[in-house]
Amino acid sequence: MEEFLPRGRAKIAYKFLNPMPNDSILDVGCAQGYFERYFLIGKVSKVKGVDINLKAIEYCSKKDGKEYYLHCAAEKLPFQDNEFDKVLCLDTLEHVDDEVKTISEIRRVLRPNGLLVLSVPNDFLNFMDLSNIKFNFPRLYRLFCCLKEKNVGTLLSLSFTVITI
């Protein structure tokens, strides 16, 4: 499996996340665990990364330890209500089956006044043939229509205060 080094959005997200030693942090869509590995493990009190890709979870669990990672869907997070101080969700929302349920689950596990750092691609489908996407990537097309109809800020504003950068 290819190792990704933090760059671009990850470094920007780290600045917004501003991890503190007593923080409990969840990364929804952690992929191969690079954010945990380079920025969080050993620096905060609790780190959990979740991803639906079993091979990715096996890879990062082997590399960093099973205690940091769980294989699960973003729409059904196996955590207690209000368990995390901060949640990270970088370029993941466009891959889930149900983005509204994912946002709801993130809100549920995030403590009151907690912080969500979320990124989604900006105008990520404008260069593609939408008729091809509609039939070959129906989930992606559905998300595109949702985002076009009511932008991600509107979706998030149902549960969060949104700051756009």
Could you walk me through the main structural features you see in this protein, from its secondary elements to its overall organization?
The chain is of the alpha/beta class. It has helices at 9-17, 34-40, 54-64, 99-109, 130-136, 138-149, 152-157; strands spanning 24-28, 46-51, 69-71, 84-90, 110-119. The radius of gyration is 16 Å and the shape is globular.
List keywords for this structure.
Rossmann fold, 38% helix
Order of helices and strands: HEHEHEEHEHHH
Mean pLDDT: 82
> What percentage of the residues does DSSP assign to strands (E)?
15-25%
The strands making up the biggest β-sheet line up spatially as 3-2-1-4-5
Shape, principal axes of CA atoms: globular
Structural class: alpha/beta
Query: Could you tell me how far the N terminus lies from the C terminus, measured between alpha carbons in angstroms?
Result: 32 Å
Gist of the model:
This protein is an alpha/beta fold. The protein is built from seven helices and five strands.
Helices and strands in order, then pairings?
Blueprint: H1 9-17, E1 24-28, H2 34-40, E2 46-51, H3 54-64, E3 69-71, E4 84-90, H4 99-109, E5 110-119, H5 130-136, H6 138-149, H7 152-157
Parallel strand pairs: 1-2, 1-4, 2-3, 4-5
Helix pairs in contact: 5-6
